């Protein structure tokens, strides 16, 4: 039996199709009643996938089957780690994906300032 995954952020259809090979996937409709969609999906969700929503004790109280949350971001400050550990819910993120990009931007700003590109 496939487990249920609730995708609460925009995700390319290619990835949704890959998820659907192994899971029952429910996607958040940003045009609909967001709170109602969460209320309907959380009790059956084994996994959550998305970014930009704070999730902790109050938000996950109805998620009795939840096993994993995958955040599509570098950080994890939107999540109550103590509560997730207490419940045994795994949290994953995508560390280091912006390291080179951030370094490139920093170097570009240094060169721009040194060469006075903006005033030119």
Structure description:
This is D-isomer specific 2-hydroxyacid dehydrogenase catalytic domain-containing protein. It comes from Serpens gallinarum. The protein is α/β, with parallel strands linked by helices. It has a single domain, classed as Rossmann fold, CATH 3.40.50. The protein is 36% helix and 18% strand. The protein has helices at residues 13-20, 34-41, 57-60, 81-87, 99-114, and strands at 3-7, 23-27, 47-50, 68-71, 90-92. The protein has a five-stranded parallel sheet with strand order 2-1-3-4-5, with helices on both faces. It is elongated, with a radius of gyration of 19 Å. The termini are far apart. The mean pLDDT is 91.
CATH topology annotation: Rossmann fold
List low-pLDDT spans.
none
**Overall tally of domains:** 1
Average pLDDT over all residues: 91
Broad structural category:
alpha/beta
Strand order of the largest sheet: 2-1-3-4-5
Task: Please report which band the strand proportion falls in: under 5%, 5-15%, 15-25%, 25-35%, 35-45% or over 45%.
Answer: 15-25%
Distance between the first and last residues' Cα: 63 Å
Count of alpha/pi helices:
5
CATH class: Alpha Beta
Count of β-strands? 5
Oligomer: single chain
Question: What pattern of helices and strands is seen along the backbone?
Answer: EHEHEHEHEH
Radius of gyration: 19 Å
- Helix % is 25-40%
| CATH H-level superfamily title | NAD(P)-binding Rossmann-like Domain
CATH architecture descriptor text: 3-Layer(aba) Sandwich
| Sheet of most strands | 5 strands, parallel
Shape designation: elongated
